[in-house]
């Protein structure tokens, strides 16, 4: 049985979390074409963050990752401007939709603190040359790159990101969903052990507290990044997998925000 601590007691008392600076490194905003989201607005996201005790979320718009990167990045920027102290953005780059132009358009916008790639939706392999602007921009600015991953994918299997990490050792790469499938969790742990610029981001429908415990035990909490994928996945469920993991309080606090905060360039 877990010893009560400030994180678990906040849940039991039905109050927002206290004692941890929670940063959600993987969120989305806006309507999605593949399923219905009752209220995908930035205002709704911040209301839920308030209820849960999440200080900040880093998001990309659903429009950006799927249908229209230029309009979607503008939607991301608008969401961040509406709540600048609570939300930050990923600049989504799609290899089929002028990634160089998007970098030029948004490079100086402080609301974008990282890059988002979704090779599975882009239907383009992540080591391909058309993603070059993403790696160049990240190397020049120190901003992390969050890429969707899926074990066995022809576009973003974690081993493909490891090949990119080897080519670009100066770029911080977050493996979104940590490979997504339990069958790949041992592999992503080993890849992150070999490549110090790879970090495991843990949102996903198949993820459990036990998987988190293995990752932290093998790599250390500073290599594991909390993300929820909300509103695709319930923020409360995603938090619970970390809050009630059988890990020391300090490790859970690091996963919930400390590890990601250490990767971010200073805010202007």
From TrEMBL:
GO MF: carboxy-lyase activity; hydrolase activity
GO cellular component: cytoplasm
GO annotation terms (biological process): secondary metabolic process
Alphabetized InterPro entries for the sequence: ACMSD, Amidohydro-rel, Metal_Hydrolase
Keywords associated with the record: Lyase
Pfam families assigned: Amidohydro_2
All residue ranges annotated as the Amidohydrolase-related domain in the record: 23-258
Transmembrane segments: none
Name under which the protein is recorded: Amidohydrolase-related domain-containing protein
Lineage of source species: Bacteria, Bacillati, Actinomycetota, Actinomycetes, Micromonosporales
């Amino acid at each position: 049985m877990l010893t009560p601590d400030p994180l678990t007691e906040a849940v039991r008392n039905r109050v927002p979390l206290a004692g941890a600076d929670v940063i959600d490194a993987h969120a989305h905003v806006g309507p999605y074409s593949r399923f219905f989201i009752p209220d995908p607005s930035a205002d709704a996201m911040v209301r839920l963050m308030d209820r849960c005790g999440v200080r900040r979320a880093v998001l990309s718009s659903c429009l950006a990752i799927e249908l229209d990167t230029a309009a979607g990045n503008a939607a991301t920027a608008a969401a961040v401007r509406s709540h600048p102290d609570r939300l930050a953005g990923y600049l989504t780059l799609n290899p089929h939709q002028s990634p160089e132009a998007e970098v030029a358009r948004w490079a100086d916008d402080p609301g974008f603190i990282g890059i988002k790639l979704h090779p599975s939706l882009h239907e383009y392999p992540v080591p391909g040359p058309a993603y070059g602007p993403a790696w160049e921009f990240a190397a020049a600015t120190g901003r992390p790159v969050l890429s969707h991953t899926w074990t066995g994918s022809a576009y973003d299997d974690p081993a493909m990101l490891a090949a990119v990490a080897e080519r670009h050792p100066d770029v911080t790469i977050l493996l979104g969903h940590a490979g997504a499938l339990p069958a790949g969790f041992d592999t992503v742990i080993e890849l992150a052990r070999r490549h110090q610029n790879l970090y495991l981001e843990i949102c996903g429908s198949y993820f459990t507290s036990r998987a988190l415990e293995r990752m932290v035990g093998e790599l250390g909490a500073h290599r594991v990044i909390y993300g929820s994928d909300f509103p695709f996945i319930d923020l409360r469920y995603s938090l619970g997998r970390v809050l009630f993991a059988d890990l020391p309080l300090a490790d859970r606090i690091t996963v919930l925000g400390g590890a990601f905060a250490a990767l971010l360039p200073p805010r202007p």
